[in-house]
């Protein structure tokens, strides 16, 4: 707030303020700040990507995909934007498109645990269970304390008829 007060056209301050508001669960206000950053700097890929995440949180999935795609248009190798787009597409039940987005995120950032986990969730929903386990395993390898990946791995193992292994993963 102080940075914006001192420099009202400080693009990064609006974007950072939006990120903090997003962490606080103030998604509408976060989007307003991302919009202000984009107004000041129309080629600000990070603001579009963060805006997409906030829109996912509000369930405005079409707008989220649009915002993430704008970030990707501005910065084609933006792994986080590809991953966020994948989350929105998955939530829209566009699973094959979501998988492509997750794969792109991993292509640009192979050590991106969240993208591997999200890929695993999509594969689970596609009933490609062995692949889902492998994606979750990769996420866990990259981030050994990634509880969500263990849980998703357990879901896939349970559906594979391996309740003992699923229980260990849970």
Attribute tags:
170 residues, 0% strand, elongated
From N to C, what is the helix and strand string? HHHHHHHHHHH
Question: Kindly state the mean pLDDT as a whole number?
Answer: 97
Alpha carbon gap, first and last residue: 42 Å
Query: Which term fits the overall shape?
Result: elongated
- Percent of residues in beta strands: under 5%
The tally of strands reads: 0
Largest sheet: none
Q: Report helical residue fraction.
A: over 70%
Q: Supply the helix-strand structural class.
A: mainly alpha
| Overall radius of gyration | 18 Å
Number of helices: 11
Q: Show unreliable segments.
A: none
Any overview of this molecule?
There is one protein chain. This protein has 170 residues and is an all-alpha fold. The protein is built from eleven helices and no strands. The protein has helices spanning 2-6, 11-23, 27-40, 45-57, 61-74, 79-91, 95-108, 113-125, 129-142, 147-159, 163-169. The longest helix is centred in the first third of the chain and has 14 residues, at 27-40. The protein starts with a helix and ends with a helix.
Put the structure in a nutshell.
This protein has 170 residues and is mostly helical.
How do the strands and helices of this protein lay out in sequence?
Blueprint: H1 2-6, H2 11-23, H3 27-40, H4 45-57, H5 61-74, H6 79-91, H7 95-108, H8 113-125, H9 129-142, H10 147-159, H11 163-169
Helix pairs in contact: 2-3, 2-4, 3-4, 4-5, 4-6, 5-6, 6-7, 6-8, 7-8, 8-9, 8-10, 9-10, 10-11
């Amino acid at each position: 707030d102080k940075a914006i007060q001192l420099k009202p056209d400080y693009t990064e301050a609006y974007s950072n303020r939006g990120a903090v508001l997003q962490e606080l669960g103030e998604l509408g206000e976060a989007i307003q700040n991302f919009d202000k950053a984009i107004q000041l700097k129309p080629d600000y890929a990070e603001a579009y990507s963060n805006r997409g995440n906030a829109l996912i949180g509000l369930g405005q999935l079409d707008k989220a995909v649009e915002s993430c795609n704008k970030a990707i248009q501005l910065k084609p190798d933006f792994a986080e934007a590809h991953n966020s787009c994948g989350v929105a597409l998955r939530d829209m039940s566009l699973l094959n498109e979501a998988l492509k987005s997750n794969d792109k995120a991993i292509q640009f950032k192979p050590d991106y645990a969240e993208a591997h986990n999200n890929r695993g969730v999509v594969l689970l929903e596609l009933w490609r269970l062995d692949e889902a386990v492998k994606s979750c395993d990769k996420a866990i390898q990259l981030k050994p304390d990634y509880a969500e990946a263990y849980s998703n791995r357990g879901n896939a193992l349970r559906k594979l008829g391996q309740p003992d292994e699923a229980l260990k993963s849970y």
